[in-house]
Design goal:
The chain is α/β, with parallel strands linked by helices. The chain has 9 helices and 12 strands. It has 2 domains: 90 residues, Response regulator (Rossmann fold, 3-Layer(aba) Sandwich); 158 residues, 3-Layer(aba) Sandwich (Rossmann fold), CATH 3.40.50.
Length: 332
């Protein structure tokens, strides 16, 4: 009996020891789903305007267009870049406006590859129409007509001698428009003292060699020209200084040296900045497709020669030409 109890106690003791040594089975860890970080949307590029100024462009024209484009772009919230060249594939979606200082060879490729962009091209020739193309047309005949008109207003006794570059591609039409502008102001322009000849006189030869132009002026000395009109490509510092030394008035294209300012009436040119500003609201709204004549202006004014009253008359004619109400080759 005693052995039986001992056996029972041993069995119970072993059971208790076995229970104490058993390790609890851990529950497998639950898989917690990992949430992916949201991919941020790319920040859209800020809207831009681009000015393309090719190598060899007129620095004065480039400067005035650049300054006005920066002003207009800043007011519209656009950044403005100035480049020497641009390819059609480089006009991305953020480019709202591209201004070309002269027509690119592949203009049609730009227009078709970037229909969302408005293009403004400054051109001396007519260009094809397109809904995203606006053209500022620089008409040499407008410049010539206003030159002749202004020269007639300024010259004592109508005595004008025009110095014109015969190598220019539009030389003949420029001379005709100049003469038409002169006659528009004074009609037959009969002088009051001998020699009794018809004005304006014209000296036409190629290039801008100041010595050659001095000879051309000297050959007209007997006719007593009192104002010289210097067409595009003629003016040089040496020529202007020489003419000033002859005590003759001057007027025309280009900027004279300081030494000749006292006899220089003013500089005739295109106001490209004003023309750009006039097109800007419609272009910015995406409704381009217009061709406008470039505005005309006179700078470097000598008030003692081109007085306020005379300038008012010139300004009115400039506006008429830009609006197309005066045709340089078809005038009364």
């Amino acid at each position: 009996m005693k052995r039986t109890w001992i056996l029972v106690v041993l069995i119970l003791l072993l059971a208790v020891l076995a229970g104490c040594g058993a390790q609890p089975t851990e529950a497998p860890p639950e898989n917690t789903p990992t949430l992916a970080e949201p991919t941020p949307s790319p920040t859209p590029a800020p809207p831009r305007a681009v000015l393309v100024v090719p190598e060899g462009a007129d620095p004065a024209a480039a400067s005035q267009v650049n300054d006005r484009l920066v002003q207009l772009g800043t007011e519209a919230g656009l950044s403005v870049d100035r480049l020497n060249a641009l390819q059609p594939g480089e006009v991305t979606s953020e480019v709202r406006v591209v201004v070309f200082l002269s027509p690119p060879a592949d203009l049609s490729a730009f227009l078709s590859s970037a229909p969302q962009t408005q293009f403004i091209v400054i051109s001396s020739q007519d260009l094809p129409q397109a809904p995203n193309l606006s053209v500022i047309r620089t008409r040499a005949e407008d410049l010539a007509f206003l030159g002749g008109y202004t020269a007639a207003i300024l010259a004592p006794d109508w005595r004008v001698l025009a110095l014109l570059d015969s190598s220019a591609p539009d030389a003949a039409s420029f001379q005709q428009a100049f003469s038409n502008g002169f006659a528009y102001w004074c009609g037959v322009c009969v002088v009051s003292s001998p020699p009794f000849i018809s004005f304006p006189l014209v000296a036409s030869q190629p290039g801008g060699d100041p010595t050659a132009w001095q000879g051309a002026v000297d050959s007209q000395k007997a006719n007593n020209p009192m104002l010289l009109f210097l067409g595009p490509g003629v003016l040089s510092d040496d020529l202007a200084a020489w003419i000033a030394g002859q005590n003759r008035l001057m007027f025309g294209a280009g900027a004279p040296p300081e030494s000749a300012r006292s006899t220089w009436a003013g500089t005739l040119g295109f106001d490209l900045a004003a023309s750009l500003a006039g097109l800007w609201p419609e272009v910015l709204s995406g409704t381009g497709g217009k061709t406008v004549s470039a505005a005309l202006t006179i700078t470097n004014i000598q008030p003692g020669i081109l007085t306020d009253g005379r300038f008012r008359l010139v300004r009115e004619m400039a506006d008429e030409l830009a609006a197309g109400r005066i045709q340089p080759f078809n005038v009364p």
